[in-house]
Amino acid sequence: MNDNAPQPPSRRSVLRTTAGAAGAGLGLGALSGTPAHAAPDATAGHAAAAGHAEEAARTPPRRGATMAGVPFEGRSTVRVGIIGLGNRGGSMIDLFLALPGVRVVALCDPVKAKTERAAAKVVAAGQPSPAVYTHGEDDYEQLCERSDLDFVYVATPWHLHFAMARAAMLNGKHVGVECPVAMRLDELWQLVDLSEQTRRHCMQLENCCYGRNEMRVLRMAHAGKFGDLLHGAGAYNHDLRELMFSPTYYEGPWRRLWHTRLRGDLYPNHGFGPVANYMDVNRGDRVVSISSFGTPALGLAQYRAEKMPPGDPSWKETYVGSDRTISLVQTAKGRVIRLEHDVSTPHPYSRINSLGGTRGVFEDYPARIYLEPDHKGHQWGDFSAYAGDFDHWLWKEHANPPGGHGGMDYIMIFRLMQCMRLGLVPDFDVYDAATWTAPVPLSDASIKAKGAPQAIPDFTRGEWRKARSGVDSAKPA
User: Fold this and answer.
1) What is the Cα–Cα distance from 269 to 210, expressed in whole angstroms?
2) Tens of pLDDT along 254-273?
């Protein structure tokens, strides 16, 4: 460990400076505790949308130095604390335990049985028995206050992500959060400010950025195979009706209940992150606006009518979330990104994952490609033919990685822990986390404003103009 590395400001000093942020124009809702929203009535729609966009476009003054390009402090062992041990956290712990130089020190989940199962995995892996925190939803604060942690991993219901990431940074820990990193625009600004003030990285752990196809397309884009980039598309179209109504899959109905609260794209990160990487968003380009449209919300109610017995608690719910949300995102360079979200209707899984430019196009699900001069006659080409020249070095080193989602989970965690151990700059940072999550509140606001464009803030405060590396990383020496 680098004992001479600069230490983060104290928790008290950061709290003191952030306390004065109210009224500083921190996006929609500022720090008032009210969520970002646009006027729901049609008559005030466009006027409210204009004011909404203007407010979102305002950039608050920086309260600390940028975190773009800031490396981790090198260390021989990364000491990890895990908050949330349900479906996601309970499986991801296996990957942390599979990596050299990583030790799982502490675990937290209010469901004691889940914590006990995870602790048994740690001991079975030959590591010391971890500390456990099971006394309610707020016990994560005790975990974050430990002095023997370097990194906190958060895999909990969405409404808890912001507070947990905040607590980790205020206690001097780097933090990685499952999608989405927060649910409100003012919370995204606060995470940006806290990362800059505490000098701790806050990262959206977007595993799809590490998919084999996504990383191959990324390297091909950077090599100029697509020519000048023009458009891309990403999605989370995944039929989750059975899981959202299952009494056991999730810990309570928290995910389904979001469909009673927001009308927009609840889960943009899987589709947005990879396409943003292709276009070097926050690294030479930036996204500037989003226009969203949503269908009626019929799918969940229809599934409930067909599958759920009378008297089930779900019958008290009114679903407002659009069954399919379609958003168009514009970049500063004039490129267009289409985002889709649909977890409420029957359809095969797709993240779309498309990229087009002046020399051709790639489309996924199934993977197919058409590039000039490689292809002709309006016939799709074989995407696998590009594996040898363009597969990322991580996939060449780990051809058959363990874990779920086709190995992308392992590649993501391996690379993050590698960066922490070697003292490298992380592949993505708090600005990416905020950007990839901004469509959650802004798509909701745009739909309520009849599709009126909503300004996407420049979370980098101008740093996006500087080219820098990202997920298309060089192999460490």
Assistant:
1) 13
2) 999 999 999 999 999 999 99
What does the alpha-carbon distance between residue 41 and residue 50 come to, in Å, rounded to a whole number?
Answer: 14
Pairing assessment for the beta strands 360-363 and 354-357 based on DSSP bridges: antiparallel
Mean pLDDT of the chain: 91
pLDDT at 107: 98
* DSSP for residue 185: H
Could you tell me what percentage of the chain is helix, strand and coil, using 3-state DSSP and rounding each to the nearest 5? 40, 15, 45
Taking the C-alpha atoms of residue 61 and residue 59, their distance in angstroms, rounded to an integer, is 6
Span 67-80, average pLDDT:
98
**Helix runs in 58-148, H state only:** 87-98, 112-124, 140-144
Q: How far apart are CA 220 and CA 345, in angstroms?
A: 34
Mean pLDDT to the nearest integer, 389-412? 95
pTM value is: 0.90
Question: 419-447 burial, b for 16+ CB within 10 Å, e for fewer?
Answer: bbbeebbbbbbbbbbbbbbbbbbbbbbbb
CB atoms within 10 A of CB 46: 14
Judge whether 405 and 413 are in contact, CB under 8 Å.
Answer: no
